Amino acid sequence: MSPAPFTAEPTVYQRWQRFSAAAVLAFHGYANWLVGISWRKFVLLSVALIVGANILQDLPPFTWRVSEMVETIEPAAPPREPKAPKAPKAPKADKADKAAESPDRPIKYEVTIDERGVRIQPVAASAISVASAASAASAAASAASGAASSSTSDLPSIIIDLPKNARTDEIRQAINEARDAVENAARDAADAAREAADAAREADVDARKAMREATAAARLPIRRTTVTRLGDFLVNLAVFIVLSSAVIKAMYKGRMVAEVKAAQATETAEAEALKRQVVEARMAAMQAQVEPHFLFNTLASIDHLIETDPPRASQMQKNLIALLRASMPTMREANATTSRDLGRELSVIKPYLEILKMRMEERLQTEIDVPEGLMSAEFPAMMIQSLVENAIKHGLEPKAEGGSLKVKAEILHGKLAVTVADTGLGFGRAATAGTGVGLANIRERLMLLHGAKAAITVAENQPSGTKVTITVPYVSRFNSQTEGATA
Predict the structure, then answer these.
(1) Which residue of 58, 67, 198, 449 has the fewest C-beta atoms within 10 A of its own C-beta?
(2) Which of 386, 458, 398, 385 is nearest to 424 (CA)?
């Protein structure tokens, strides 16, 4: 039995990478969804989210309530015993009312009449002697005053000074009236004190009863409800989500538009690259063919001239070798470059025209007008050769008397213009007129290489024939190589 394969557990960094990738994917998915909905729908969803957060924050599991019965054994703060109300104070008619404050202590007043006047003094009942009032009035008064001074010092005394000419009956009547008033006031004060004491006792009984009832009520079981709230953050979270989503929706749309444009541009570039590869393949095939009928005709002409005119045969052979030597590098570089310098293009055209001149003899005259300074200018490969081949094949060869062919290069409005003009039959007038595929390929290739900056024009030549001009941006290959080396 083979052992189970060992699988290493993912590290913390690998877990973090997976989480980051998942988070980024989720963010892009959410942002794409936000961009896909309208602003009206976004506002409606935002309002619904905030309202739902307000409702959910008061519902489980974000908020719940727990009720329980609690019995209090000892009250935390028992009710305080109320204080007994204070007894109302007796009106301060005179100091004699103090005698009523102590109802348990018997107080009496002694009235003494002598030549000085009338004296009414409080004395205790046990301190009064039973001596005769007539024999020891003054002594009894002094003894009673001394005996009562210790116990009745706080009670008031009444002293009435009598005038010397007052009558006895008037004095006696005034004394009796004063004594009656004092006794009535003392009785009234005693009654008021007793009523106040009774009210205080009743209030004390009521307070003790209320305290007992409050203590009993505090010991009864009560229901306590605890509320736990965990959803207070939901509303703030909903507002944060709405605001951040609005920012993402506003900013991510521009990014998506840029990405779409970039994708379209990439798609267009890939399509153009594909088209360019197709054109390059066609041009490479054309270059590889090197006009087989032209090559066979040239070899046949060399074979014929070897017997009739060996010097001309040798010259034609040398031109063919030069043509092949100039064409072979182009075939090898067809997949590596799209432009060459103008001098290399002419190195293919010159031997080709020389071979044709030897074959057509006086029927073909050629001219190449290219300044030396333009030999380093970049020009798409094989385009001049295609134009020259078309001019010979469809313009000059079908014409009995032949004609001339001119290749000219110049700078027009800051661009390089290369013209191939012939005096043949004219465009589309020969029996061997082509289908125009070659010119269409050249036009398509120029569009791929330079866009709207390049152009090809076909016009009638004077006095006869066709003139084709290719215009491309002027770029010196020597300068571009120097800048590349410097960079």
Answers:
(1) 67
(2) 398
